[in-house]
């Protein structure tokens, strides 16, 4: 990858297509790298070196896209299904740490996606039908061959299948993507990119006394990113890229209960986050061994939140067959032996001081802020040495942020096939808008930031086999922490945030990759890591495992390609009269047959056990 010295991988479309689990989802493919873990099996969220799911930057042809997935959530970069069509992808540069100065406002990783251009010679159309839905893709020339386009549309139809299965969650979505390129001349071009989609899910009648209050949910949302990019090769030694555009994402959720056959909505949220941006980069190669680059990024962020919730009322439940000294085991035994548990509830006693504990929630707020940055970088190469020195300056007037972050990279080639790499960097990230502009914060939140150090060894065992070993260390500062989490006996989670959180993450990673050359390919990755935060409560200074402290993670991928078209017997087999009738069968021989596998192991996420208080019908965590 360009400017990547450590923790960097580059993948092309063929590698994405061959991944046995990725199912054409680039984020699922990245989960095979040693730096990356998953947050859950139900989505493609990536966790990089112990960081949170909202610490990853996604760039699509020079445009920043907050979360390129359906069914995502706030402060996250993942979801159940990607909205990106991998037929558009030409190359992916992934930085798991130590990334250069042109990338900012994220702390853990960068996924820089370069899209190919459409066909300049003839029109091509493709249609696919799968369990995920129906999709259409088309590309072709425009403007007498001076321009090209690619466009796609995909829509799910799972609801028509699931509706008759008795399942309570029915996901629906659609997405579309378009790229148009116009070549002004041989040195200048305009690119238009747009991607967007909508999703909707409904969970209904999941009746369970342990899930009371969450059995009926209507969730929907939409998102889009669009922008225009001008790229100019202004000389044989330099080029510039300038983009402007807009990105927006909406989350809308309604939770209700059934009261006498009528929907009683007791929680509603409608949240919108948008960015209008203009960014530019210029790269100039002074000599074959010296390159300089610089750029700007100006962004105006907008945030709208409408949130209404009924008062949170807790009742005390008495059961006729359970005494005051009954345990949770007694309760479960009663429930198992008597499914009609309502008959054992004698009455509610809110007068015992256990009535409403939180007032009704009415939160209507909106705001905006400017986020500006400039960066510069010098990359020099001589003999066995490669040095990259960068600096980035971020300015956010809202919280009076004006910070400068250095980025340093160094590489020394011990031999033509072996080198040692080092990197150091400071990385700032603004809190998410809904946290940063929360009116209940004690003061404007400062940017959270990390110090990162990486040292690695890289060796080529053959032209198509590379191995790397890296050791990293990250420290976190100024992380947002819920005020309710540090307040003793606090039950109100709406008190806002402070920026006192601290943490650290460290580990060692091994990666061995065999690129596809003749018939087979494969990767082996292993990481041993520790990710932990400092207890933010007063008087406590000990560290505790963070949510994504997986410890041991290993992934093995392998594949083999059979090229039957090169054999002597296959052409004769294709000419037989019965071949058309059996060619569609799974694992049937064809011009090329590919067999692949993927095996993953992880220790599992740490967790704090929850306890169920059956007399109040609430889950709680003991400190």
Structure description:
The protein contains 8 helices and 35 strands. It is mainly β and 623 residues long. Residues 207-213 have low confidence and may be disordered. The longest helix is centred in the middle third of the chain and has 10 residues, at 328-337. The strands form 7 sheets. It has a 20-stranded antiparallel beta sheet that branches. The protein starts with 7 loop residues before the first strand and ends with a strand. Helices cover 7% and strands 56% of the residues.
Note the topology.
Layout: E1 8-12, H1 13-18, H2 26-30, E2 36-38, E3 46-48, E4 56-60, E5 63-64, E6 69-70, E7 81-82, E8 89-95, E9 109-115, E10 124-130, E11 133-142, E12 147-155, H3 158-162, E13 169-183, E14 188-203, E15 217-232, E16 238-259, E17 262-287, E18 290-309, E19 312-313, E20 317-319, H4 328-337, E21 345-348, E22 356-358, E23 361-382, E24 385-396, E25 401-415, E26 418-429, H5 433-436, E27 448-462, E28 465-482, H6 483-486, E29 497-514, E30 520-534, E31 543-545, E32 552-562, H7 569-574, H8 579-582, E33 593-602, E34 611-613, E35 618-620
Parallel strand pairs: 4-9
Antiparallel strand pairs: 1-8, 2-3, 4-5, 6-7, 8-9, 10-11, 11-12, 12-13, 13-14, 14-15, 15-16, 16-17, 17-18, 18-23, 19-22, 20-21, 23-24, 24-25, 25-26, 26-27, 27-28, 28-29, 29-30, 30-31, 30-32, 32-33, 34-35
């Amino acid at each position: 990858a360009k400017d990547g010295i450590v923790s960097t991988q580059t993948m092309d479309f063929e590698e994405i297509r061959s991944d046995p689990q990725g199912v054409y989802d680039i984020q699922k493919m990245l989960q095979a790298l040693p730096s990356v873990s998953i947050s859950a099996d139900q989505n493609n969220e990536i966790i990089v070196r112990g960081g949170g799911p909202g610490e990853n930057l996604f760039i699509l042809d020079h445009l920043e896209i907050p979360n390129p997935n359906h069914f995502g959530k706030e402060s996250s970069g993942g979801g159940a299904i990607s909205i990106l069509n991998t037929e558009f992808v030409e190359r992916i540069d992934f930085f798991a740490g130590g990334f250069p100065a042109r990338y900012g406002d994220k702390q853990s990783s960068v996924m820089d996606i370069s899209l190919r251009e459409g066909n300049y010679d003839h029109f091509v159309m493709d249609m696919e039908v799968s369990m995920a839905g129906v999709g259409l893709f088309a590309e072709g020339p425009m403007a007498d061959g001076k321009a090209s386009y690619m466009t796609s549309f995909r829509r799910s139809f799972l609801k028509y299948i699931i509706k008759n299965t008795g399942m309570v969650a029915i996901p629906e979505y659609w997405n579309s993507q378009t790229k148009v390129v116009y070549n002004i001349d041989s040195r200048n071009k305009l690119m238009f990119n747009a991607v967007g989609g909508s999703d909707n899910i409904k969970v209904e009648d999941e009746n369970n006394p342990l899930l009371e209050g969450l059995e009926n949910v209507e969730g929907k949302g939409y998102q889009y990113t669009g922008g225009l990019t001008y790229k100019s090769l202004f000389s044989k030694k330099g080029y510039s890229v300038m983009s402007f555009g807009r990105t927006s994402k909406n989350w809308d959720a309604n939770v209700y209960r059934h009261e006498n056959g009528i929907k009683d909505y007791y929680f509603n949220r409608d949240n919108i986050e948008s960015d209008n941006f203009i960014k530019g980069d210029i790269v100039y190669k002074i000599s074959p061994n010296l390159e300089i680059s610089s750029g700007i990024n100006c962004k105006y962020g907008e945030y709208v939140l409408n949130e209404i919730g009924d008062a949170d009322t807790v009742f005390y439940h008495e059961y006729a067959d359970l005494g005051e000294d009954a345990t949770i085991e007694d309760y479960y035994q009663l429930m198992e032996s008597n499914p009609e548990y309502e008959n054992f509830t004698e009455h509610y006693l809110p007068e015992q001081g256990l009535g409403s504990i939180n007032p009704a929630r009415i939160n209507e707020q909106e705001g905006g802020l400017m986020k500006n940055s400039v960066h510069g970088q010098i990359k020099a190469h001589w003999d066995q040495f490669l040095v990259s020195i960068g600096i980035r300056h971020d300015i956010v007037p809202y919280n009076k942020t004006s910070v400068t972050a250095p980025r340093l990279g160094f590489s020394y080639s011990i031999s033509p096939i072996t080198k040692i790499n080092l990197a150091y960097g400071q990385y700032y990230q603004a809190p998410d808008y809904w946290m940063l502009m929360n009116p209940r914060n004690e003061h404007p939140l400062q940017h959270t930031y990390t110090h990162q150090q990486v040292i690695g060894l890289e060796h080529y065992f053959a032209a198509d086999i590379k191995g790397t070993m890296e050791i990293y260390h990250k420290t976190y500062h100024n992380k947002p922490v819920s005020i309710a989490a540090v307040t003793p006996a606090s039950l109100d989670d709406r008190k806002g945030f402070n920026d006192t959180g601290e943490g650290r993450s460290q580990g060692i990673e091994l990666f061995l990759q065999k690129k596809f050359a003749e018939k087979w390919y494969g990767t082996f990755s292993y990481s041993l890591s520790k990710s932990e935060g400092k207890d933010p409560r007063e008087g406590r200074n000990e560290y505790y495992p963070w949510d994504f402290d997986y410890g041991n993670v290993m992934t093995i991928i392998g594949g083999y390609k059979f090229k039957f078209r090169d054999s002597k017997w296959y052409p004769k087999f294709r000419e037989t009269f019965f071949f058309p009738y059996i060619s569609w069968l799974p694992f049937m021989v064809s011009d090329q047959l590919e067999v692949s596998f993927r095996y993953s192991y992880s220790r599992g996420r740490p967790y704090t056990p929850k306890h169920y208080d059956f007399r109040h019908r609430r889950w709680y965590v003991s400190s």
